[in-house]
């Protein structure tokens, strides 16, 4: 640890389980079910910048999607204790994301990176942005002076983030991405061809009609529902804040290798 170089698929699966990025994750079952219920009950804080109308009002339907796409237990009577993310689903989603990154590289596309989880995923996004820039992509620079009710929308290491009180801020809101896309349109600048993000940054982009791929935890069902509906193209299931951000390095290496970017 960390795995030197680029892991094989089997090595990455083993690493994801050992570091609890997948497998038996830290997020408890009761937290997962609580979030599924709140989304189904229409609590927009759990919609992550998306618009579901009345399409997901049964929490059992939400659970079924999460079991299929994330690997959480599909047993509705399992209410407490351990829950899981299937590492094979994580790696399969990384491979699908890699294909979309390859398309971006081949087309020299404009790509915007953003994270609502800077404590865990900032380096994942930064390394991906650097690889795409080296391959000829334009990494979108966000307009200056943007803010939401939560704080200022900034760009740090090529990644858009929310800043509050001189601190990079954890947020599930879609409002920061709304601020970025609205400002780009107001300035007459083209929207990104692709957004690589998480939380509401990815959700709002997909809802706005921009190609979006991203990462989501097992207690954040909205992006997986959006993937099921086709609003977001790819969502990688993982624990989005494990004990060390270095644990994500082998995953990032695998992703970039699969995309032909290393």
Features:
262 residues; two-stranded antiparallel ribbon; Phosphatase_SCO2771; alpha/beta; nine-stranded mixed sheet; 9 helices; Phosphatase; 42% helix
Overview of the structural elements:
A hairpin with a 4-residue loop joins strand 5 (146-147) and strand 6. Helix 1 crosses helix 4 (87-106) and helix 2 (29-40) packs across helix 3 (59-69). The radius of gyration is 17 Å and the shape is globular. The model has no long low-confidence stretch (mean pLDDT 97). It starts with 8 loop residues before the first helix and ends with a helix. The strands form two sheets. Strands 3, 4, 5, 6, 7, 8, 9, 10 and 11 form a nine-stranded mixed β-sheet that branches. A two-stranded antiparallel ribbon has the order 1-2. It is built from nine helices and eleven strands. It has 262 residues and is of the alpha/beta class.
Topology:
Layout: H1 9-18, E1 23-24, H2 29-40, H3 59-69, E2 84-85, H4 87-106, E3 110-114, H5 118-134, E4 138-139, E5 146-147, E6 152-156, E7 159-164, E8 167-169, H6 175-186, E9 194-198, H7 199-207, E10 212-216, H8 221-229, E11 234-237, H9 249-258
Parallel strand pairs: 3-4, 3-7, 3-9, 9-10, 10-11
Antiparallel strand pairs: 1-2, 5-6, 6-7, 7-8
Could you give a quick summary of the protein structure above?
The chain is α/β, with parallel strands linked by helices. The protein is built from 9 helices and 11 strands.
> Could you list the spans in which at least 5 consecutive residues all have pLDDT below 50?
none
Query: Helical element count?
Result: 9
* Cα-based radius of gyration, to the nearest Å: 17 Å
Overall mean pLDDT score? 97
Distance between the termini: 20 Å
Overall 3D shape:
globular
